[in-house]
Amino acid sequence: MRIKQLFIPLTYILTLISCEKKSTDSDISNQNKLESIELLNPEIMSDGGVKLSIKVNSVPTQDVYTFAIVVSEDSLFTKVIHTKPFELPLSIKSYSYSFSSGFKTNQKYYYSYMINYGSVNKKEIKSFVFGKEKMIQIDSISPRKANINDTLTLYGNFKDYHFTKIMVGDSSMHFAPTNSGQQIKMILGSNTPVGSQIISLFTEYQTVKSKEEFSLLTPKILSISNNVDIDQEITIHGENFSPWREGNKVYLNNIAVNLTSYSKNMLKFILPNSIKNAILTLELTANNHRIEAPEKLRLMEPTLLEAPLNLRLNQHYSLKFKGLPRTNYIVKLDDKEVYINQVSNQGGFQTISFSPRGDYYYTTKKPKLTLHYLDKQITIKDQIEIVDKWELVQSEAPFEVTSFSGSVIINNESYIGASKKDVFINYPFRLWKFHSSTNSFTEIQVPYMTESPLIAGNNNLIYLYTGKESENFHEYNPATKTWKKLNDYPGLKRGGAVMSMVNGKLYITGGTNSYQNVYNEPDNSLYAYNISANKWEQLADYPINTIPEYGNRIHATALSLNNHFIVVGGAKTTGNVEVMAYNTQSGQWIRKADYPPLMWQTSFEHEGFGFVLKDDIHKYDFNSDTWSKIDENILPYGLYSHTKTTFFKSGQYAYCVFNNSKSGFIRIKLTDLLK
């Protein structure tokens, strides 16, 4: 029993000893594992900032690829504000990181460490209250002068600082501290201000300014190309241009141009054809400076080599230059633009071919000839003679030219028959008295409906055929300004006919009839009106068999020469060339010299000759039975064979009124038609 009693305590003691030994070994192992990485207490720096340290007592056996100190605003590390990794591989030593800024003063923060981007070690956490930031100092800046997009370097002790922004003057810049903490590099952006500037560094609670000043390089223009041409490369020589393409801009009269080449002392561009001025203000921007060239950029001054001595309408002329800039040109006579046919540039010479088209008429016969390009004017001749005989009367007449129904002269005053412009009533037809002294018309009301009216005159009276079926013939007395009805024209209603006065009788022929259901039936009948007897009689028809295929006369014109009623032009087709004259004494039709196959001509008689106008003026000599074209008097551009014109004489002038693409009212001296 005694032995048993002794055995039990011994076994208990041995068991206790064994348990105590196992417990001690485990505690030592765990303690060694925890103390292999030791979190040290924070060190509050007297001059500002805080130093946080971790001591590695032994290198962990596991692979370590990240080892960092972690700072948070809360002990659960849900508000981490700094994670600062240390360099690897780990070694047995203390690792520290000094924070000079980046914390709020008088606020408590918590820190621990993290391995391999795992969770933060929350078994060992320490805390500190941040007191104040460490004062920053900028030792120097370099370079002191630079370009936009260059890198500016700040030198000083910037390690462990958390910068919120860096400014040049009042403009923020992109920046990056170097690993050494001794430099801060920043790119000078396009917002860098000009002039001397202070560099400012900002942390959470302090701002430090550089003692040295920085400024952008100031560009300077030394010279530019001059006497240049459009599409030519222009060179600007100077200093301190930006070495970056986007850092340079060139402007001509405030309009940007594209650079073809650039360097710090030279810029090149092509002079664009879009410029508007021959003398240009050149400006450029570089490094945020905008400067103006000391001299204007001037286009080359051209030299005039050839120019016409005088001008004629519708003829081609040339201006020849050397050194004329390649741009758009305008040739003018006084203030009227002249048509340019062609521009050529060969062998260093520039030739401008132009034509003073006939839709320009000049009250002066010696206008100023000028060449215009961009904003420049070159006077070719102060006065250049226009040898054409036509001159402008007015821009237009008050009547419709296409409704012209003849002209007469009563007591040396001219009267026109035509419809009033833009009047669409039952009685649009008017007589128009022309006043040559003022080149104006007086409107005379016609109280009758008309359809294809014709007028003719004798002594002091004007006769009107209305073209209607009844009440179609009337007399107007200009002296009393009264109308009188005469015996009706007895033939069928006709349009497109001609009527003329020969030896006191009116003769009418040609055109077409329209009656009942018949329209445009050729009418070759000839009627004469005896004024003294107020009586009509039918005479020998117009001979349609002379040229059978051209037997019908529509829209011809008539002349009264040597006791003959002469029908000129007009046709059912456009091919009728024959001229037929009715001898009012013998009563016979006579074939005369052919005339160009035209319709819608107008005519008058003067000094025993007939003058017919269409595209040109032809003079008819009855005695020699010949037609001659008056070449020296070229008519205005715009008169075509399908255009009806008004051609009449008054006083010492022949007048032409036409209205096609252009309207014109022009005149020529009658003496010029006789030459």
Proportion of strand residues: over 45%
**Helix-strand category:** mainly beta
Largest sheet: 8 strands, mixed
Instruction: Tell how many strands the DSSP assignment holds.
Output: 62
- N→C terminal distance: 178 Å
Widest sheet, order of strands: 9-11-14-13-12-15-16-10
Q: Detail the poorly predicted runs.
A: 1-34
Shape: elongated
Range of helix content: under 10%
Cα Rg = 54 Å
Counting DSSP H or I runs of 4 or more residues, the number of helices is 2
Roughly what is the average pLDDT, rounded to an integer?
86
Task: Briefly summarize what is shown.
This protein is mostly beta strands and 675 residues long.
Textual characterization of the structure:
This protein has 675 residues and is mainly beta. Helix content is 6%, strand content 46%. It is built from 2 helices and 62 strands. The strands form 15 sheets. The protein has an 8-stranded mixed β-sheet with strand order 9-11-14-13-12-15-16-10, with no helix packed on it. Strand 33 and strand 34 (376-381) form a beta hairpin. The radius of gyration is 54 Å and the shape is elongated. The N and C termini lie far apart (178 Å).
